[in-house]
Amino acid sequence: MLAIVVGGIGAAPARAQDAPTIFDEQDAQLWIQFNSQVPVSPRWTLVFEAQPRWNQNFTHFDQAVFRTGVVTRLSSAVQLGAAYAFIPRNTVIGLVYEHQSYQQVQFRLPRLGTWTPQVRVRQDQRYLAAWGDASHRTRQQVRVTRPLPRRPDVTLVLYEESFVNLDDTVRGPARGIDQFRMYSGLQRPITKDLSVELGYMWQEVFELGARPHRRNHNAMLQFQFRPRGGGGRAPAPMPRPMQDPASASDQAS
Q1: What CATH number did the domain enclosing 110 receive?
Q2: 29, 79, 147, 156: which could form a disulfide with 218 (CB 3.0–4.6 Å)?
Q3: Helix spans in the chain (H)
């Protein structure tokens, strides 16, 4: 699986010179996620992610997100998390590298019939050398899941997420409402430790500074690995944001 990601990055510099700047108001993108949550104790879990993405109607390898982090469970309903991401991005000026960290809190709310609601609040810090400054962003996600009535082994996943930039950078993201996402998908276990999820994300990217307004239609394919043995019981699945428009120069997950 990781060979797909590494292979795409290795070819990226050769294609970057030919990659046209995107001005279309709409784009179709493909995001693939390989996520793993490995419990190391009853309270602590390590998080590993690799996320290659293609834009320009699936024809252009845009970026890959490599993330590692930690989650701790405060109670059965509250989790805290923090992570760092290294993000190679294939742009019109060549391969550039974004560094990103986040801190988050996640709440599992009381069940509503067969629905399980969750709320997540995340604070991002993002840095790209060309920006000349770090960008700060807040994200708020509301997520609900439920098993299908006639297929209890298949879970329906719905979420919406809003992004707000908290400050202006010199040559990067501008302050204001950044983007909005709505997602629907179906998740099914393959083994007791591995599940697959297929979904669609509608993404509204608002005009900020020199960045134009855009709408993206994203096909999402996710693989979730959560070993159930070992040091502790894995926490509830975390909401998975399927990160930012690959076309905009100041966007990454």
Answers
A1: 2.40.160.40
A2: 29
A3: 2-16
Q: Show Cβ contacts of residue 35 under 8 Å, excluding neighbours closer than 6 positions.
A: 47, 48, 49, 222, 223, 224, 225, 240
Into how many domains does the chain fold? 1
In a domain, 215, yes or no: yes
Residues sharing a CB contact under 8 Å with residue 151, sequence separation 6 or more, in sequence order: none
Q: Residue 3 above 90 pLDDT?
A: no
Distance CA 160, CA 180 (A): 7
> Strand runs (DSSP E) across the chain, as ranges?
26-39, 44-55, 60-73, 78-91, 94-108, 116-128, 134-148, 151-165, 176-189, 194-205, 214-225
In a domain, 238, yes or no: no
pLDDT band with cut points at 50, 70 and 90 for residue 158 = very high
Longest dimension (CA), the chain: 54
Q: Which of 15 and 119 is assigned the larger pLDDT?
A: 119
| Mean pLDDT, range 119-128, rounded to an integer | 97
